[in-house]
Specification:
By secondary structure, this protein is of the alpha+beta class. It is built from 14 helices and twelve strands. It is elongated and about 85 Å long.
Length: about 425
């Protein structure tokens, strides 16, 4: 059943939503918050305002749109409360030394009337196209993973004065602001993980070091670094791919990545000088074969971790935790409608993203605390997909029970959609 009935949701849903009631001072706001959350958690493939309103008993398009677009509530306050809720319970709280992952993700959007939409590189499709990009931070400790903060990236082409516009911010600048948000909550990551879009940025790395943060950042193969290679009289500037070709095969150490399906890689660790950073840093060159001539994949990672920590296994396994990001986006875009907002302004779009974060966190908390399993499943809930399926089973049972006493309400809902019963 695709319909959602907020009054018939499982008790765990109401208990979770109740933790945010004081953020929404009006009863109608609390009602629409539950309707939107329930809509995001529904079985509908589309999760935009029109679909949520049409499939939610007691909701209307005007009311749902008003909640996201006009209603006076603070998305930052909602997000901060969500993070507080995560930290309140031992089962859901990430362990000390968690990893902070920096990422950005894009999706196609047509036209140019929506804030942030323009021609730019979209990681989801791997090329430049018309679309939207959000910069995000995430927490992951090897078991528990949560989104932390999000900000819209606005390419210069979408701003009145281009790169000279006062509101223009590059992605690394947005990322640094999100990192500071994390630190301002007194949450100190053990390691910050950066893909090459951020790892190549020396200024961002320098700012992380100012904040006494340890990082592992990917670098592109054509990144220039300073190293003294065989045949060099002194330290010279080299491309990373040229550095890799000079390393002897015996420098590469076999490392087994602790992934869902363990994978062997071969990693060499050397010291290099990185532009804009004083002193040496540790560079790891990772192959998917024992030698550079056999490898079809070569990855480069830079870290400022102490040399006694930054060995081949630690660097490779630390960076492999970024794979959680791919799972997160698959779940939030595929199941929770991360990219399916139906609003045009930045404030409303970022509200939608925070509401999606809330829906994701609800399911994650149910998985880690075991509440859904005890009542609704005989099997362990080890994945997001399993948790979502069991939750939908609980919702369906609640709706069927509700229908016994509210059939006329349901018929009126269907009739308002132009449907009728014989």
């Amino acid at each position: 059943m695709l319909e959602t009935v907020p009054d018939a949701m499982p008790p765990c849903f109401e208990k979770f939503c109740g933790k945010f009631d004081d953020i929404f001072p009006r009863a109608t706001q609390r009602q629409h918050f539950r309707a939107y959350m329930a809509g995001l958690l529904s079985e509908n493939k589309r999760k935009n305002i029109a679909v949520i309103a049409a499939s939610t008993v007691g909701a209307s398009y005007y009311n749902v749109h008003h909640f996201v677009h006009d209603s006076p509530w603070d998305a930052d306050e909602l997000n901060n409360r969500r993070i507080d809720v995560i930290w309140q319970t031992r089962q859901t709280r990430p362990s000390i030394g968690f990893k902070l992952i920096i990422d950005d993700s894009g999706h196609r959007k047509s036209g140019s009337a929506t804030d942030g939409v323009g021609r730019q590189y979209l990681g989801q499709i791997g090329k430049v196209d018309n679309g939207m990009v959000e910069v995000t931070t995430h927490i992951y400790d090897g078991l528990r993973g949560y989104p932390l903060d999000v900000a819209m990236y606005k390419p210069a082409s979408t701003l009145e004065k281009g790169k000279e516009d006062p509101s223009f911010q590059k992605k690394p600048e947005l990322a640094l602001k999100l990192i500071d948000k994390c630190l301002n909550r007194d949450l100190k990551p053990g390691v910050v993980l950066l893909d090459a879009g951020y790892g190549n940025n020396g200024q961002l790395l320098a700012e992380l070091e100012k904040r006494q943060l340890v990082y592992v950042g990917a670098l592109s193969k054509n990144r220039l670094v300073y190293a003294k290679l065989a045949g060099d009289a002194a330290r010279n500037k080299h491309r990373l791919e040229d550095v890799a070709k000079t390393l002897a095969p015996e420098l590469f150490e076999k490392v087994t990545l602790q992934l869902e399906e363990p994978r062997d890689v071969w990693v060499a660790v050397i010291q290099i000088h990185f532009p804009k950073l004083t002193g040496t840093r540790t560079l790891a060159i990772q192959l998917n074969a024992p030698t550079i001539s056999e490898a079809t994949e070569v990855d480069y990672y830079l870290t400022n971790a102490p040399t006694e920590t930054a060995n081949a296994a630690w660097i490779a396994n630390s960076y492999s935790d970024r794979n959680w990001i791919e799972v997160f986006y698959r779940e939030t875009k595929g199941w929770l409608g991360m990219s399916q907002y139906q609003v045009r302004d930045q404030r409303s779009i970022e509200r939608h993203w925070i509401l999606v974060f809330n829906a994701f966190t609800f399911l994650a908390c149910q998985r880690f605390t075991g509440g859904l399993r005890r009542r609704w499943s005989a099997e362990p809930l080890s994945t997001f997909g399993q948790t979502f399926k069991v939750f939908r089973h609980a919702v369906e049972c609640g709706v069927l029970k509700w229908l016994q006493f509210n059939w006329d309400v349901f018929v009126a809902h269907r009739a308002a959609l132009g449907l009728s019963f014989g």
